[in-house]
Structure formats: C-alpha cells, structure tokens
Design a protein that fits this description.
There is one protein chain. By secondary structure, this protein is an alpha+beta fold. The chain folds into two domains: 244 residues, Bira Bifunctional Protein, Domain 2 (BirA Bifunctional Protein, domain 2, 2-Layer Sandwich); 88 residues, Anticodon-binding domain (Rossmann fold, 3-Layer(aba) Sandwich). Helices cover 38% and strands 21% of the residues. The chain has 15 helices and 16 strands. An eight-stranded mixed sheet has the order 1-5-6-11-10-9-7-8. A five-stranded mixed sheet has the order 13-12-14-15-16, sandwiched between helices. Helix 1 packs antiparallel against helix 5 and helix 5 runs parallel beside helix 9. The longest helix has 18 residues. The chain is elongated, with a radius of gyration of 28 Å. The model has no long low-confidence stretch (mean pLDDT 95). The structure holds histidyl-adenosine monophosphate. The site of histidyl-adenosine monophosphate (HAM) has 27 residues, from strand 6, strand 10, strand 11 and helix 11.
C-alpha cells in the first residue's frame, strides 16, 4: 500500500500536466472575457454546510461524502463540489454589499466516495462559476454561453446542451402532490432509497440510477409541464436568450440534477460520444441557497465542469494540445574547469529566459550527447579545456545537423536571437 495511490485518485504526471495548464489558461482567459473573478475556497468545510446546502436526501450527502472528526471533535467534510463553499464565502465575506451581480469562478479538486470507473473518480477536478444577485434569465444565458464558448475555443464538437426547469418552491409544492399520486401505486416496487425519499423529497426519486426504478418512473409527470407563470416566463426568456446567441439546445424534461439546491433552470452539457459518463458539465439556478445557508435572500446560478471528462472528450475527438517548448540548448562539458564554465553559461542562458541544461550527474561525454538527444535539445555545444583556451566551440543544431564554429561569448546572443 505504501507505493499505491488511494482508489479513485490519480497523479497528474509531468508529461501530461501541460494539458491541464493549457486548459486552465484557456479557462482563465475565458473568465476574464466574461468578467468573472477567481475565488479559492478551502478543501474542507463544516459537514453541516453540505448536508443543508447540497441536501440531506441526495446521493452525495447520503453515500458519497468524505466526513471525519478533527482533533477538536468538529465534523468536517472534504468538499464534494464547489457551490456550497462559494455560497458560504459569499455570505461570510459580506459580498452582498459589493456591486451585484457578483461573478466568481474556481478551479478545484472535489471528493466523492463513488464507484470508480472511467470518468468517475473519488478525487476529481472541477472548473465552476457562480453568479449572485440577479434573478434574470440573462444570467442563465450568460453562464451557458460561457461553457459553449469554452468548448468552441478548445475545438470541441458533438456536445449537446440539454435544458429543463424544475420550478420554484411554489410550483414544486403542487407538483409534489401530483408526483406522489403517480408514485403511490408503484411505491412498493421502488428501491429502499426511493421509498425513503417519497415523503421527504419525492423529486429526488426521478434521479434514481436503479434500472428497475428508472423503468417504473418513466411516465411520471414532468415539472416542466407544471410550472407557475413566473417560472414559465423565466424558461421562455432562457430559450429566447439562447436562440438570440445561436446556441442550440434540447429540452430534456428528465433532468433533475443530483443536488437539492436547484430552482428554475437546470442544464447539462453531454458528450454525444462518451455515453453514460458523458455529462461533462452541469449547472443551474439556486435562488434559495444563500438564504438556506444563513444569508439574505439572494438569487444565484452556476455550473461546474469536470476537467477529467473534458480531457477525455478532447482526446476522443483527437484534439491536439500544444506541447510546451522544449530544451533550447544542452551545454556538454568535459573536465572540472569546463564543467564550472558550463554551469555558469547554463545559468546565464537561463537568466535570459533560454531553456538550458547541463550535466548534473557526471556523465561521460558520449552519455551526455545521448542525454541531449533524449531530452530533444535543439542545440548542443561541447565545452572542454581546449574550447575555454581558444574561446571557441562548435554549436550544433540537432534538428538540422548544421554545425558552426562560434566564440563562447557569442552563444548567449545567438540563442537569444534564435
Ligand atoms: P455535478 O453535476 O455534481 O454538479 O458535477 C459537475 C461535473 O463534475 C459533472 O458534470 C462531471 O463532469 C464532474 N464530476 C462529478 N462527479 C465526478 C466524478 N466522481 N468524477 C469525475 N468527474 C465528476 C456540481 O458539482 C454543481 N456544484 C454544479 C453547479 C455549480 N451548479 C450550480 N453551480
């Protein structure tokens, strides 16, 4: 176990980390364009925040949280998502007194005790955004357009946007009665979790992953068909806003999402290729959450996008992520004096922003040349006592094979102007 990472966690190794950095750069540029500021929140919060925020009847809270007591006996939980923490921070830091709407984004790790499979991990990465302080559908359109543009900038195709509305507490109250009426005759055939949710939160039953339950609830009434006038209007606004930006979408009455805080708009971006793990991004409006967490009534909306799934999708669509620049020059050296000279030259080159390497483990000249080849250095120069004496060396371009006699003093300027 000593040299084994816990199940569901993965290292991001040096030869793939450039892909993550590339995506993070595209994301931060995107957020800048949309006027979102980055927020960094703690990895753990008081357990109660997620129990109340995400919801007692959700799979996340009932089955998937990493919860522990600290040495002071406090119950803490590794964040299973970012929204609750951001809402807590919005309240705690008095962001309600800032100019509204407050537009925030984050790149975080999140933790869920899930059945591990491709695209489903116990530690995973999310890029998310949250907007506070506007009830307008215009924000719904903005956050959706942000994800849509991110996919475009990354060169992704074949990702479908599905939208739905799950109403507000007002329309949901009436709808719950209808839903319970539908569920009552089949209640005994549903799984235990669904039975437990029947009284407390019947809507959650529609999110059950059990095949048998899925079959039985297939014809359940949809919330979208039972919206109050305000929610209907909001949904129509969202649709016209998306049409206005030429963003294509499907209406999927079955989206309820796995978290309890949603009101009105919910949406998911799903890969056409990947299938069940194909939900790359999910989000929606949560107009009651700030109040539920102890703040003043404040509308909110946001989304989170799984970076692992995004990368999987980019890979499956054959999208090439530009590799970082390699080593510009390898300075090989022979003998003590030359090694000291080379070490100084390498430092000077690096100080000028050139990617330079030299020998660090006392390799023979032949082994150094092999190493330079392995690390794909563009130039190689060999320095020995003779080169130092004559102030001359051979600078070899490894890509073209071209060799040039150069003075040692000129190497820096040559590389700078390359
Ligand atoms: P979520 O749908 O639970 O929503 O997660 C968002 C995205 O995170 C998913 O679409 C998926 O790409 C990724 N994801 C979730 N669980 C895993 C996992 N076990 N392994 C790999 N990737 C995963 C939320 O988390 C909400 N906080 C989104 C939100 C923000 N709603 C409003 N604001």
């Amino acid at each position: 176990m000593l040299a084994k990472a816990p199940k569901g966690t993965r290292d991001i190794l040096p030869d793939e980390v450039y892909k993550w950095q590339y995506i993070e750069n595209v994301i931060s540029r995107l957020c800048e364009n949309f006027g979102y500021k980055e927020i960094r929140i703690p990895v753990f919060e008081y357990t109660e925040l997620f129990q109340r925020g995400v919801g007692e009847t959700t799979d996340i809270v009932q089955k998937e949280m990493y919860t522990f007591l600290d040495k002071g006996g406090r119950s803490l939980t590794l964040r299973p998502e970012g929204t609750a923490g951001v809402v807590r921070s919005y309240i705690e830091n008095g962001m309600a007194s800032l100019v509204q709407p407050v537009k925030l984004y984050y790149n975080i790790t999140a933790y869920r005790y899930e059945n591990v499979q491709k695209g489903r991990y116990r530690e995973f990465h999310q890029f998310g955004a949250e907007v506070f302080g506007s009830p307008s559908y215009l924000v719904d359109v903005e956050v959706i357009s942000m994800v849509d543009l991110l996919f475009k900038r990354l060169g992704l195709n074949n990702i479908e946007l599905n939208i739905n509305s799950i109403g507000c507490p007002k329309c949901r109250k009436e709808y719950n009665l209808k839903l319970k009426e539908f569920l009552r005759p089949i209640l005994n055939d549903l799984c235990q979790t669904c039975k437990d949710r029947y009284e407390r939160n019947p809507l959650r039953i529609l999110d059950c992953k059990e095949e048998n339950c899925k079959k039985l609830i297939k014809n359940a009434p949809a919330l979208l068909d039972n919206l109050c006038d305000e929610c209907k209007e909001h949904f129509e606004g969202l649709r016209s806003g998306l049409d206005n930006l030429d963003i294509k979408y499907n209406i999927d009455k079955n989206i309820v999402r796995g978290l309890d805080y949603y009101t009105k708009t919910v949406f998911e971006f799903v890969s056409v290729n990947v299938g069940t793990q194909g939900t790359i991004c999910g989000g929606g409006r949560y107009d009651g959450l700030v109040e539920l967490c102890g703040g003043k009534p404040t509308p909110g909306i946001g989304f989170a996008l799984g970076i692992e799934r995004l990368l999987m999708e980019m890979e499956s669509q054959g999208i090439n992520i530009p590799e970082p620049e390699g080593v510009d020059i390898y300075v090989a050296s022979l003998g003590e004096k030359a090694t000291a000279f080379a070490s100084k030259l390498v430092f000077q080159l690096r100080s000028e922003g050139i990617n330079a390497e030299g020998d660090l483990i006392g390799r023979s000249l032949k082994a150094q040349m092999k190493y330079a080849d392995k690390i794909n250095a563009t130039y190689v120069v060999v320095i020995g006592d003779n080169e130092i004496e004559t102030n001359k060396a051979v600078l070899k371009n490894m890509k073209t094979g071209e060799q040039k006699d150069v003075s040692l003093d000129s190497i820096l300027t040559r590389l700078k102007n390359k």
